[in-house]
Amino acid sequence: MANIKSAKKRILVAEANRQRNVAFKTSIKTALKKALALAEGDDKDALNAAVSKVYQLCDKAVSKGILHRNTAARKKSRLVLAINKLAK
User: Over the stretch 38-58, which tens digit does the pLDDT of each residue have?
Assistant: First the structure.
């Protein structure tokens, strides 16, 4: 454990940031699962809205530094590939 006051504060701040990042990543995973679930149905409008939400969350995560840009691009690409595969 750190002895210096500023180091103790950094530990607290880092933990708060970690929890925030984990929560944001979890919301992305949930949105991905919802989009894939909607891909199996017939509601195209809801599917488009869900895919748009996933894109929005991924782009926001990149801008906040939570995800690397290539990771976000990979997630978006895999989502579209999976949706197209289910559409066939």
Answer: 999 888 999 999 999 999 999
Considering the four listed CATH numbers 1.20.58.110, 1.10.600.10, 2.60.40.10, 2.60.120.620, the one that applies to the domain covering 5-87 is 1.20.58.110
Rg of the Cα trace of the chain? 17
DSSP class of residue 40 equals: T
Q: Distance (Å, rounded) from C-alpha 59 to C-alpha 73?
A: 9
pTM comes to 0.88
What is the C-alpha separation between 79 and 55, in angstroms, rounded? Answer: 10
Contact 25, 67 (CB under 8 A): yes
> Can you read off the two tokens belonging to residue 33?
């699962």
- Quick one: tokens of 43? 């509601």
Give the model's pLDDT for residue 76: 97
